[in-house]
Structure formats: C-alpha cells, structure tokens
Amino acid sequence: GRLSDAVQPLAYRLHLRIDPKKERFEGEVFIDLNLAKSQSAFVLHASGIDIVASEIQVGKKQIRSDTQLRQAAGSKGEKEELVVLVGRPIPAGKATLHLTYRAPLEEKPHGIYRVREGGKSYVFTQFEPSDARRMFPCFDDPIYKVPLELSVDVPMGQTAYSNAPVQKTKTLPQAKQTRFTFAKSKPMPTYLVALAIGEFDVLEAKKHTPPIRVLTTPGKSKQGQQ
Hints:
This protein has about 230 residues and is an all-beta fold. About 0% of the residues lie in helices and about 55% in strands. The chain contains no helices and 16 strands. Strands 3-6-5-4-7-2-1-10-13-12 form a 10-stranded mixed β-sheet, with no helix packed on it. Strands 8-9-14-11 form a 4-stranded antiparallel β-sheet, with no helix packed on it. The protein has a two-stranded antiparallel sheet with strand order 15-16. The radius of gyration is 18 Å and the shape is globular.
C-alpha cells in the first residue's frame, strides 16, 4: 500500500468550511508537487471524500484531471487511495494539484469528527496513525514532511485552533461565519496536523516554548491544571 516516490508533495494550502452542527463539510486544497518523471496518472491518499473538481497547474497551464477512489493493493477494507488521471502526460518537474471536495464529519474519534456536549457541537481531529486522508486528500505517510497553510470558515461565535498561530481573522457577514487563517506550519507529517473548532475554555501554560494550551468545553478548564 505504499505510494510511488515518483510524485512527492512539497506543500499544502488547505481551506475548509466547517459547521460542527452539520454532518458534512467542504474543502479545497492546493498540493505543490515534484514529479521525478513524466506522469499521466498518479496516486495519493483520500478516504470517504467526494471530489467535486480536479485540475493540475503546470506553469501557466490549467489541465483538467479526473479522479477515482480505489482500495490499496492487498486491502479488503475502505477505498483509501485517490487516483488522479490526466488526459495528457505531465512533464517532470513542478506542478500543483487543485482539488475541491466534500466529506463527512465522523461520529467516532478518528479522522475529523464531531462531538456534542451540553447542547453545543465541536469538531476535533485525530489523525494517528493514518487518518489525515479523511480531512483532505494528501500523501498520508510520515516519510513526507512538508509545510501546511490552513484557513477555516466557522460559524460566528466559534473559534478554530490548529498547529500554527492565527495570522488573521476575517468576518464573513453574509455567511455568518468567521475565517481563521493560520501561519504556515513548519514541515511535518500529515498525522501531526491538528484542528479544533467550537466554543472553548482555554488554559495556556505560562512562559513555555513551544506554547502549550489546553482546550476544554465550558467550565472544565480547571481540570487542565491538575
């Protein structure tokens, strides 16, 4: 089930639209790639994701591509590989894969999932060992360590947290949402990507490098001091 090293990721730029009260969310990802040789098809990871549109940018050219999910070799479980099919071969070198998609918020604590407590809904992620592919199409193998730029639209009144500090926020009044844009992360494997959305109490460690904080549902932050 290992991916070919003929195509390798260089960076991810990911935008998500998530409402913890809804069963599904929307995403858009740009994946910068390096192709060791010319390719007319290649494979990455995705699970439970419905691809809406797919294209590849090579230089200034936009090339439409098709996708299909398949089982990994020897697997009898879920379809967890995403095959990208291109009408004409892509030359060796740099390219960018652009995908828009929809996916479910899981009800069990793996991948990207939601939790309901005290009449409120929350979203969390748990990607170990290999469930980042449930939130976005990616090369979900720890051998690949690349930076991630993430932005998330969430309902007004809720907050999003991730691995990197918030770079800016923007109110989207027509959609009744707030957009959180995070700074580019350091290179890391996909299983370490983290996201939390909701109305949280936040407990922050004082003068700690790197910064540490504990997120809890309202009224439970004192438990983090123990």
